Amino acid sequence: MGRLKDLRSNRGLTQERLAEEIGTSQQTISRIEAKGDLIPVDLLVKLSRYYNVSVDYLLGLSEEKYNQASRDRMSEYMEKYDEEFAKYDALTPEYQEIVKSVIRTISDIQEKQAKRNREM
């Protein structure tokens, strides 16, 4: 399934990281991406929510990536972070990659802390 791999790659995620995020195995992600294996419904819903795209888009039934709820959520983000988006857009591609890397690093740190807190 090319769309799943594209969505994952665009977020800079490894198969392992995505699997961890949605509660499945790297092998499952690999099989789905490489062989187009059938996706269990529960996993399909998780992927749709995680990527904020429609199930139809994930299955290749529609070119329409976002449903109305997703569009509404994106509009809210656009309004809330308008200045930040404008500043990001003004950055060179190299600096945009640095910003993405910083966000991923901070997110990783936060997730590790949350995991440690859950284990306590």
Strand and helix map with partners:
Layout lengths: L1 H9 L4 H8 L3 H10 L5 H11 L3 H5 L8 H13 L1 H9 L2 H27 L1
Q: Could you describe the 3D structure shown?
A:
The protein is an all-alpha fold. It has 8 helices and no strands. Helix 2 (15-22) packs across helix 3 (26-35). It is globular, with a radius of gyration of 16 Å.
Core attributes:
120 residues; 8 helices; mainly alpha
The arrangement of helices and strands along the chain is HHHHHHHH
Spans of 5+ residues with little confidence (pLDDT < 50)? none
Helix content: over 70%
Report the sheet-strand fraction. under 5%
Radius of gyration: 16 Å
Please identify the oligomeric state. single chain
Mean pLDDT: 86
What overall geometry do the principal axes of the alpha carbons give?
globular
Distance between the termini: 38 Å
Number of helical runs? Answer: 8
User: Which structural class do you get from the secondary structure elements?
Assistant: mainly alpha
Number of strands: 0
Largest sheet: none
Offer a concise description of the structure.
With 120 residues, the chain is mainly α.
